[in-house]
Each structure stands twice: as structure tokens, then as C-alpha cells.
């Protein structure tokens, strides 16, 4: 597998072809997810070929945005299937990558350990120190795509999403549980004094 080759190719394509109205799902998000996926995979004891497959899936997980905004995971998996043979990936390896990309569709339902890692990497920001800044870019992106939300509606959406969210890997649960709980507490509506 020529991971470096496919990484160079896809990052260049994402940098040139992703639509401009993606303050959240831009190239920076893909890079952050690849970094998080590698960290989580190592924390979970994943190495070698499996680690390369995880990083590859993280690269492709939002590549469907090249084609459309909604329901793009299927298109990202299809793009991986089209491009990866030229970089030495076997049909079996490509199938594993496709499964990981597809698993990132919300609500996430990973069926394998590798799918769980990529799903957790995709939403790693929920437990990060820059949660508020990253969430603000997602709010901007929703507005750019016709879903402008009032402050109350945004807070309610975040409460609902964070309240339902569960990290899938033990390492992500350990790393993010306290901050996820703090986010939920911050978002609780306050009674007037």
C-alpha cells in the first residue's frame, strides 16, 4: 500500500476541489481526523497494515463532499474504491476502508474495531479544548447551507447531539468523558434568577 502516495493525491485534490462553504468540513478537518485516527489507533494497540487502513479511511471519510453536501459518505467510499487500486491496495483492504468511511455516517454505527476508531476520530473535537471554536465553524457551515439557527436552537441541537453521543473506543471514552460531560453542563438551560 502506498499510503504516502494516496495521501498526497487526495489532499491535493481536496485542497483544490472542495467547495468554499465548508468552514467545518474543509481540508483542515480531514487533517485533524487523520491525526486523531492515528493517535486513537495507537492507543487501541492498532499497528501495521491495520493502522495504514485506518489512516486511509480517515483521509477519505469526508471526500464525498467533493460531490455533494448531504449523504456524502457513500460517495467517499466509492471514491476510495476507485482510487486505491492505483496505490497498491487489494480488494480486501479497499473493502475495509469503504466500511470505515461508511461507518462515519450519522448516527454512527461502527461494526468493527477499526470502524469505531475512525468514527471516534471524526468526532474527536467533542472532547477537545477547542470544542467551542470548532462547533462555531459547524454552525457557520449549517447557515451557509440553508440551516441558520438561533442561539437557543443551536444550544438545543448541541445538547441533543452531545447527550446522545457515545465514543466507541475505550481510549476515546477515557480521554473525552470528563470534557463531554462538562460541555453538556455548559449547555444546560439556566433558570432565570
Characteristic terms for this protein:
single chain; 65% helix; 193 residues; globular
Map the helices and strands.
Elements: H1 3-17, H2 27-43, H3 48-60, H4 73-83, H5 91-103, H6 113-122, H7 131-144, H8 151-164, H9 170-187
How would you describe what is shown here?
The protein is mostly helical. The chain has a single domain (3-187), classed as Orthogonal Bundle (Hypothetical protein af1432). It contains 9 helices and no strands. It has helices at residues 3-17, 27-43, 48-60, 73-83, 91-103, 113-122, 131-144, 151-164, 170-187. α5 (91-103) packs across α6. The chain is globular, with a radius of gyration of 17 Å.
From the helix content, strand content and strand pairing, which structural class follows? mainly alpha
Tell me the number of structural domains.
1
CATH topology: Hypothetical protein af1432
Order of helix and strand elements from N to C terminus: HHHHHHHHH
> What ranges have pLDDT less than 50 throughout 5 or more consecutive residues?
none
**Describe the biggest sheet?**
none
Distance between the termini: 61 Å
Q: Tell me the name of the CATH class.
A: Mainly Alpha
In the CATH hierarchy, the architecture is Orthogonal Bundle
